[in-house]
């Protein structure tokens, strides 16, 4: 039986101001090891807030989150920083690469922060660069490579420390269609090769169809979920049908 990596119980998030806004209204969710799950929903549904609470960017108002049986919100600042570096990997739409560093230095940054020895850093760099097909650009700067290559570099940086959970927020939002297919095939490969659980927010049904399961959030609650079978095209159509029922097309969600 698969071990649960992420467990979410009655997750709630409120933003207070002149008007209190309830972004999440009590979500229960679990993610098993090696599982790849996409999160979808209309704009303003709470899907990014959901990801931000799990990634410790946002603190929940109520509810519980455990990652590998640890509650990140019970850790002090130093412990939390280490927890994020060791347990979690992050991939964003805008790559978040450091422009003053080479590609190699960008990828090695998480290991350098944890004072990993040089030999181990070089071993992991070689392994991940070969896997992602980016060996030839390691000495280049960020302005010398394409968008698809930048996202591969961002993925390399996110997984070089071998996290158990990879969190991705619209990872293909800035890519052309050819790069989208390439990057999503990489996500599938990472999930299978490194046994990394992946939780990905996306508005794109095609991107979501690479996942094994898609959950839909609407108005801050878990609305529905569908599972991928043997037929990927049928899974894509089920995603599209659910999005249409929710009230929007592929590019509106």
Automatic annotation (TrEMBL):
Q: What is this protein called?
A: ABC transporter, ATP-binding protein
Protein's organism: Aneurinibacillus aneurinilyticus ATCC 12856
Record InterPro entries: AAA+_ATPase (IPR003593), ABC_transporter-like_ATP-bd (IPR003439), ABC_transporter-like_CS (IPR017871), MacB-like_ATP-bd (IPR017911), P-loop_NTPase (IPR027417)
Residue stretches making up the ABC transporter domain: 6-244
- CDD domains assigned: ABC_MJ0796_LolCDE_FtsE
In which family does this protein belong, per the annotation?
Belongs to the ABC transporter superfamily.
Q: Which PANTHER family match?
A: ALPHA-D-RIBOSE 1-METHYLPHOSPHONATE 5-TRIPHOSPHATE SYNTHASE SUBUNIT PHNL, LIPOPROTEIN-RELEASING SYSTEM ATP-BINDING PROTEIN LOLD
Q: Does the keyword Metal-binding apply?
A: no
Give Gene Ontology CC terms. Answer: membrane protein complex
Work out whether the entry's keyword set contains Iron: no
The protein's UniProt keywords, in alphabetical order, are: ATP-binding, Nucleotide-binding, Transport
**PROSITE patterns named in the record:** ABC_TRANSPORTER_1, ABC_TRANSPORTER_2
Annotated GO MF terms = ATP binding; ATP hydrolysis activity; transmembrane transporter activity
